[in-house]
Amino acid sequence: MIEAKNISFGYSSTQLLIDRWDASFAAGEVVAVTGPSGRGKSTLLYLLGLMLKPHSGTVLVSGEDVSGLNDRNRAHIRASTFGFVFQDAALDATRTVLDNIIETALYRGEPRETAARRARELMDQFGVGLRANAKPGQVSGGQAQRIALCRALLNNPRILLADEPTGNLDPASADIVVKAFHTQAASGATVIVVTHDPALVVRCHRKIEL
Amino acid sequence: MKRAFALLRESLFTALAQPVASVVSIVMVAGMCATVLLTTGRTVGAEQTVIGSIDSAGTRSIVIHAEPGAGLKADVLNRIATVDGIEWAGAFSTAVDFTNVSIPDGTKVPVRLAWGANLSSLGITPDPALPNGTAWASPLALTQLGMPDKFGGIASTAGTNYPVVGVLRTPDYLTMLEPLVVIPESPDTHVDQEVSVLVVIASRPDLVAPVTQAVQSILAVDDPTKVTITTSEELATLRSLVQGQLGSFGNNLVLVIFALTAVLVAAILYGLVMLRRKDFGRRRALGATRGLIILLLLMQMAILSVIGTLLGTGLSIISLRITNDPLPSFSFLLALAILAVAVGIVAALLPAVAASRRDPLKELRVP
Q1: Cα-to-chain-centroid distance, residue A51
Q2: In chain B, which residues have their Cβ closer than 8 Å to the Cβ of A84?
Q3: pLDDT tier, B39 (very low <50, low <70, confident <90, very high otherwise)
Q4: What's the CA gap between B89 and B117, in Å, rounded?
């Protein structure tokens, strides 16, 4: 589903954080990427998620080289093919929960009504259905992460990328998130999770150590 | 269309979600409009009033008086019709005294034959039912004739009679002929009759001098010493001086105000972008293109600019009305509104581009 071939990347020109790295992630699997802090786990996730361009090497999605595409096309793939879950949920504090979840519909050009209908289904599924009109500041950390999960799943992504998704969650909320990853993988998606959480790692199909 | 509406909605909600920044932006644009209107707008209004006063004094008029024997004929109008830059021309014969037929001893009022291609601008409409000619009188002449009903008949001492069938609208450039009663002649009748007054109105004040020269060259009079030409050339010069001085002052002031406001709006928006960089980073990460980020910010600023323009313009007009100051014309207000919105959008361009170039990864790590 998604492959990294010989990719290299560094924030300075003299030191590479990721050096000629290869990996392949198949559809239907949940893969944990672990390792000590500062080894480039999040950077790797953003390279795979087309937010960064590798200095060399290629990223392939369904066999197609997408790392060399222009910004517009990479943004389109991010909006339509990928789902993202960030460590701190990264919700817009000024907008309602529902508006946060359907934000990506605007980037895909999907009608608001269609997106809102699907968003309400997801919110009910993840137990935040009653908070649609609340602001992110009015929900708990666990609820915020479930809301971020709803946003990531709104477009039924073929590739779901998560950066420390359970880092700030209690075990019950973390369990909901992990189950959602497995459900999404079971539907044919690839799920890549960067995590330090051993409890999450053991529940993944595979682990990659950086 | 749906896409445009969705973008507009998103821009509006983003503006509403940042009330302080939005209000500051609206106040900036409103302040810009108010400053322009209460300074330059007031100047323009005053300028338009002064110009109007000068124009009402006959800025564009050329009056040619011909004494008896000068040889100025009514057919001069045919030659004048070939000259460019003329809005109106009319010729009037020597005046003959007439009185109200019902009051033979009443006040004598001068009556003139009149020629002109556009006498209808004086309120004269041809009446085919009265082939021998009809008389049209100004309100002053009607009063002096003792015709409160505005209709009646006039008679000369020689026994010529005319029915008075309508009221003349006397323009500013014909007030020197008051009290004015005219017998309209068709352009091709009695054209060899001498006229005593020829009035020519140039299209623009700056054309008075060349039109005067052109008309003078085609008068074809027998005795030029019996012809006197009075023009409003000095008034036209004064008019252009007034317009030039006030216009250039106003233009410079507007430019300074717009430039200062644009810089302030850009600075505010740039600060706003810095405060919201995590927001833009998230949008980019979730799939917003750079172009979309720019478009959203520009639309947001356009909405705020429109509100600010309406607010600033509305309050300024109320203020000018309260202080009885002259209002600038609608075209000035419209131009100001368009410029104000454009300044807002242009000022937002640089911050918008800066926002679109935020690095998603870097911004999402902002605590």
Answers
A1: 12
A2: 285-286
A3: confident
A4: 7
Contact indicator for A166, A178 with CB cutoff of 8 Å: yes
Sequence-separated contacts (24+) of B291-294 with Cβ below 8 Å? B291/A72, B291/B356, B292/A75, B292/A107, B292/B7, B293/B352, B293/B355, B293/B356, B294/B349, B294/B352, B294/B353, B294/B355, B294/B356
- Three-state secondary-structure class, residue A7: strand
Exposure on the CB side of residue B146, measured as CA atoms within 13 A: 12
B 277-306 → A contacts, CB under 8 A: 278-279, 282-292
**The domain over range A2-209 is classified in CATH as 3.40.50.2300:** no
Q: Half-sphere exposure (CA, 13 Å, Cβ side) for B318?
A: 6
Tens of pLDDT, residue by residue over B176-227, are: 889 999 998 876 777 788 899 999 998 887 788 889 889 888 888 888 888 8
Asked if residue A21 lies in contact with residue A6, where contact means CB atoms within 8 angstroms, the answer is yes
What is the nearest CA distance from B290 to chain A, expressed in angstroms?
A: 7
Answer whether B6 sits within 8 Å of A112, measured CB to CB.
Answer: yes
Quick one: DSSP state of residue B152? E
Rounded-to-integer distance, Cα B328 and Cα A116, Å: 49
Nearest CA to CA, how far is A112 from chain B (Å)? Answer: 8
Q: If residue B267 lies in a helix (H) or strand (E), which one and from where to where?
A: helix B233-275
Report CA-CA distances (Å) from B252 to A25, B32, B249, B347: 65, 14, 5, 19
Of B17, B284, B285, the CB nearest to A95: B17
pTM, to two decimals:
0.65
Q: What is the torsional sign of CA B113, B114, B120, B121?
A: negative
CB pair distance less than 8 Å for B282 and A151 = no
Q: Are B63 and B72 in contact (CB under 8 A)?
A: no
ipTM for the predicted complex comes to 0.90
Where in B191-267 does DSSP place strands (E)?
Answer: 197-202, 227-231
Average model confidence (pLDDT) across chain A: 90
Query: Tokens 């009056």 map to which residue?
Result: B63
A-chain CB neighbours of B10 within 8 Å are 106
Q: Which two tokens stand for residue B91?
A: 């010729």
Q: Is B70 helix (H, G, I), strand (E, B) or coil?
A: coil
**How do B96-100 and B152-156 pair as beta strands?**
antiparallel
Q: Which two tokens stand for residue B166?
A: 């309508």
What would the two tokens of residue B80 be? 């004048």
Residue B309: pLDDT band by 50, 70, 90 thresholds? very high
Longest dimension (CA), chain A: 51
Number of H helices, E strands in chain B: 11, 10
Greater pLDDT, A2 or A12: A2
Cα(A85)–Cα(B358) distance, integer angstroms? 19
